[in-house]
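Quick entry between incubations.
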Amino acid sequence: AQSVTQLDSQVPVFEEAPVELRCNYSSSVSVYLFWYVQYPNQGLQLLLKYLSGSTLVKGINGFEAEFNKSQTSFHLRKPSVHISDTAEYFCAVILNRDDKIIFGKGTRLHILP
Amino acid sequence: NAGVTQTPKFQVLKTGQSMTLQCAQDMNHNSMYWYRQDPGMGLRLIYYSASEGTTDKGEVPNGYNVSRLNKREFSLRLESAAPSQTSVYFCASRGGTGYNIQYFGAGTRLSVL
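Done. Structure below.
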């Protein structure tokens, strides 16, 4: 069965420092991978996605993620964070033909001044 | 440009009361979903509907019922609310040309006393 593991429940980082949010998945078949962001008191919105092709995908607000099939990872990175990046970030996976998207438990990004 | 609309935004119930959470999407999507979000638990799927006229249980269906009224609307009903159902509920839909992307409503904050 497919699953998604976000290794850190909370990540504190200083403003303008780089950040990496880790995500690993398990699946025996090809998958589509996503990162969603949830700002305080809002719903989730898509940050970026990997469907096929280049393993480095770029999303909104300067975020990018790299798909690594051998390590079954899809880590999210940003070279310089801003206070406005304070949010919860969810990694998600879906099988090519499955109708259910599986979410990780989320990582709260705290930006320190 | 409404996307996924949930009503109400906030609700307080007493134990044993019933209520229906409404969800509508205007993107002509086939699939619709109900999730609950609790601290440290991420998003958990309650029920989903892959197409009009079909519904299936998700990870945590007990205590809930759903109705896919038509292609646009997917409602979630609590027949006899319990304090354990205090949560934030999100509706989502998926389909169309970017069919693997899920779009979320803004959420309903429910408190059961």
